[in-house]
Amino acid sequence: MNIKTTAAWDKFKESDITPEEVYQDRRRILQQMGFLGAGALLSSSANAGVFDIFSNDEQKAAFLTKALPFAKQADYDHLLYGALTPESKIISHNNFYEFGTSKTDPQENAQDLKVQPWKLVIDGEVDNAMTLDFDDLLNLFPLEERAYNFRCVEAWSMVIPWVGFSLANLLKKVGVNSKAKYVAFETLYDPEQMPGQKSRYAGGGINYPYVEGLTLAEAMNDLTFLSVGLYGKTLPPQNGAPIRLVVPWKYGFKSIKSIVRIRLTDKQPPTSWNQLAASEYGFYANVNPEVDHPRWSQASERRIAEGGLFSAKRIATLPFNGYGDIVSDLYKGMNLKKFY
Ligand SMILES: Nc1nc2c(c(=O)[nH]1)N[C@H]1C(S)=C(S)[C@@H](COP(=O)(O)O)O[C@H]1N2
Ligand SMILES: [Mo]
């Protein structure tokens, strides 16, 4: 293993790193001790083996990730519909246009992203605006593990074991005031570090910084998660270090990465993909097999790293990505074809 040590990360030792096998074993032990639900042991690294022979996602001199302490709290494992996707796929098949528009670009180009120091500002319609630093992100709230179905609007999917905390915990801490109706999110803007931000062409046409938004009710739902890690370790840059949103019932583009600002507002905030192509990407972006993208069907999805050598397995897409029992009430009476 070729671990790059940077000054920022020198307090973490190589022994802190938990390989996927150790992680899986830890999950097995936790399950035997009764800490994980029955659905928790869905993973099999064996799934990855044959398929991986033909992929070139060898690990490069990597950003240093650190093992995180976490406890199983809210348990959504029973809503997973497939095995955990191997870590090697989760960190090598990414969308993070700030680092390039092909799936392998982020792993290739993001390894030097500086996450310490980091500042996350929470402001707008709140009682106590706050600025969190890197240590706050990992320490302010008890961390929990949440394995979630993850569905990109491009019709591929994974199952990812995130570590983090509910956004609601943070919103309660800052105290949302009565004018707040939406939550706006913003990614780091730093063209020196993020080559995709240097030109509209390099960055896929997006007008940076990347921005996203949720209604306040969506943001307060317990499923809505701020992730600081995956597979038991801090996030690698390509997955949105040091902190990113995960909204598992929505298409992946809502799950904004490397967040520097969370602002409570009274108006619906602009969102990057909607600004780029409003007829293709809506504000809501709830996973919906019955509402096709103008250029492709959303009825099924390719499950990354499952299904054999030359084709990923195709599986049916579920309404709200399998989380309808928890979130469909948020959209009662709403025309989901119109508000896509
Ligand atoms: N800042 C930023 N956040 C982003 C993106 C991006 O390009 N820039 N891509 C989105 C899209 S389209 C998807 S599918 C997910 C991918 O997350 P992953 O690479 O961790 O799987 O991140 C989302 N968040
Ligand atoms: Mo996506």
TrEMBL record:
Transmembrane segments: none annotated. Belongs to the MsrP family. One of its GO terms (biological process) is protein repair. It catalyses: L-methionyl-[protein] + a quinone + H2O = L-methionyl-(S)-S-oxide-[protein] + a quinol; L-methionyl-[protein] + a quinone + H2O = L-methionyl-(R)-S-oxide-[protein] + a quinol. Heterodimer of a catalytic subunit (MsrP) and a heme-binding subunit (MsrQ). This is Protein-methionine-sulfoxide reductase catalytic subunit MsrP. The gene is msrP. Residues 113-273 form the Oxidoreductase molybdopterin-binding domain. Its cofactor is Mo-molybdopterin. Binds 1 Mo-molybdopterin (Mo-MPT) cofactor per subunit. It comes from Shewanella halifaxensis (strain HAW-EB4). Part of the MsrPQ system that repairs oxidized periplasmic proteins containing methionine sulfoxide residues (Met-O), using respiratory chain electrons. Thus protects these proteins from oxidative-stress damage caused by reactive species of oxygen and chlorine generated by the host defense mechanisms. MsrPQ is essential for the maintenance of envelope integrity under bleach stress, rescuing a wide series of structurally unrelated periplasmic proteins from methionine oxidation. One of its GO terms (molecular function) is oxidoreductase activity, acting on a sulfur group of donors, quinone or similar compound as acceptor. Pfam families: Oxidored_molyb (PF00174). Coiled coil: none annotated. Mo-molybdopterin binds at N94, Y97, E98, C152, T187, N239, R244, S255, I256, K257.
